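Q: How would the structure tokens look for this protein?
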Amino acid sequence: MKRITLLLAIFVALMIFAACGGNNDDASNNGASNDTTTNGTVDNDVTTGGTITAPESHHINMAVLPGPSAIGSLLLMDAAVVDNDAVINTYNIQVLGSPEEVGPMLAQGLIDIAAVPTNMASVLYNNLPDGVTVLALSTMGVLHILDTTGEISSMEDLRGRTIHLSGMGAAPELALNYVLTMNNLEPNVDVYLEFHGEQPQIAALLSQGVAEIALLPEPFATTVLMQNEHVSHALDLTEEWGRVQPDYGLVMTAIVVRNAFLAENPQAIENFLNDFAHSISFVQNNVDGAAALAVEFGIIPNENIANQAIPRTNQVFITGADMERYIMGYLTVLHGQLPQSVGGSLPSENFFYRP
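A: Here is the predicted structure in token form.
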């Protein structure tokens, strides 16, 4: 088995490529035959003429980013160092320090599959010479509004307030702007946004009493809540998105494959989708085990934080028509505010994996 190369890094602000996500009730239900939402139960066996045979294993080089995008791959990361009958393929998974590393590595063929912010998937589709195809959605809402005043319990309560966040022009800001606007709150008129370079800086400002209200993703939100008794959870942006947009969720992480690899290795991709569904199911149903792996692979600093944060990362496995609807709805919202956040234009139907 290949060893995982871990590149430990801070959970960086993703700039244009950053993303964090939302919930939709459809994401927890099993889809029809052409659409997959998951509890993660997938049959590895292939039956032909009454004989059960295991699919041929393939090797895949994959990249994930620190934080929620890596959580869904924990079982695959474990299988790369410990034999695991739950997966078919073999994997070498790298935890990259920055989303900007993904594009060059895909272009050079150094990785085959990547878990990336959903809007970054569209950027890659529009800009890589050979393009990418999105296989599945793996993470929905991870953004939370934290409060030190005890006075915030609705979006309207934010009127006249300042929200501290990172990543000007990034997906978290665009998602927040959308929810504010849909609640008749004009960004930087009714609600002020103050930007900072990194998530730990915002956490420090909350602790120091300099910042009263902040937008933070997991696992930073949970870390702050566990370490500072003066900070409370005020609003879940996932839920607030769902109130104003019930047709599609806030989709934070997409799984993409480079098109050349997809064309040459269709069975490897079918195996991967099977394996990844098992990994998502493992995370959903075994939080303690997932927390231990998240710490082992340097994704979250300790198991106490991991146990609290992982359920809030909204790990899902969504493919087919639901995936297409969620992604296009979300990208349309971002494109309407800042076209370059999705690579300049919305992707065509060729963006989606249709076996």
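Residues 1-34, 38-48 have pLDDT under 50 and may be disordered.

The first helix runs from residue 68 to 71.

Upvote if useful.
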